[in-house]
Specification:
Distance between the termini: 45 Å
Structural class: alpha/beta
CATH class: Alpha Beta
CATH architecture: 4-Layer Sandwich
Number of strands: 11
CATH superfamily: Carbon-nitrogen hydrolase
Number of domains: 1
Strand content: 15-25%
Shape: globular
Oligomer: single chain
Length: 258
């Protein structure tokens, strides 16, 4: 999605058009990027819609179109903002309201937005799904926790072109490490003078990119099969060999030593 900078009304219209296209293509779940209604803004005063207003709008679109929707939104909360990912069921039930755990300190996001402290999962059509947001991708520990339950992990982003290599490499790594589907949903276009080039991808539990990589504003559709995750884990289940008690002990020991 080419997010129009800080223009909520135009971006809402664009989201609705994407949903209509998805409906015609019999899509079950449509996913949008981080801060899809504003772009990656640090101007909290531009967040004019409340969380309740945004949820009401998402719910209406989900129910009217009989489609599950995941979308990144920024909302004002106290004197700061919250960078959230909301997943709404086709029946209009809010399944998750995830808050970004790792605000991007290099842009000052940590001074403007609250830090989340929960990993959330929800279930859609037999798949357990966990959403993360952009900079979260660089912190593998939370993916290990999420993938204990989730068969799909989504990462909605405003990831600039200059760090494209990291985007692709880390998405593939997280899929291989966690033996689950990883979906990277990135924006494209220009926002606040930064160039974004999309390159949204579906990655299989084996680390294979499943779609043609595009730098255009487009709807990318893939069918995911839960049997593939079962097959990968039956052949080579990494999770059973993790030594989490040891990792925790080493971490605690290092904390004491420092």
């Amino acid at each position: 999605m080419d997010i129009i900078w800080e223009n909520i009304n135009k971006n809402m219209k664009k989201v609705e058009e994407f949903i209509e296209r998805a409906l015609k293509n019999k899509v079950d779940l449509i996913l949008f990027p981080e801060m899809a209604l504003t772009g990656f803004t640090m101007n909290i005063n531009k967040l004019v819609l409340s969380e309740d207003e945004i949820i009401k709008w998402i719910r209406k679109n989900a129910k009217d179109n009989n489609i599950n929707i995941g979308i990144g939104v920024a909302v004002k909360s106290d004197k700061m903002g919250s960078n959230k990912y909301i997943i709404m069921s086709r029946e209009g039930k809010c399944l998750t309201k995830y808050t970004k755990i790792h605000p991007f300190s290099y842009s000052g996001e940590d001074d403007k937005y609250h830090k989340g402290d929960k990993i959330l999962t929800c279930e859609i059509d037999g798949f357990k799904i966990a959403p993360f947001i952009c900079y979260d991708l660089r912190f593998p520990e939370i993916f290990q926790i999420a993938s204990k339950e989730a068969q799909i992990i989504t990462i909605a982003a405003n990831w600039p072109k200059e760090r494209e290599k990291h985007w692709i490499t880390l998405l593939k790594s997280r899929a291989i490490e966690n033996q689950c589907y990883i979906i990277g949903i990135n924006r494209m276009g220009i926002g606040n003078d930064l160039h974004y080039n999309g390159k949204s991808i579906f990655v299989s539990p084996d680390g294979d990119i499943l779609n043609e990589i595009s730098e255009k504003e487009t709807l990318i559709i893939k069918e995911l099969k839960i049997d593939m995750i079962r097959a990968v884990k039956e052949q080579f289940d990494i999770k059973k060999d993790r030594r989490e008690d040891l990792y925790e002990a080493i971490s605690n020991c290092n904390s004491i030593l420092h």
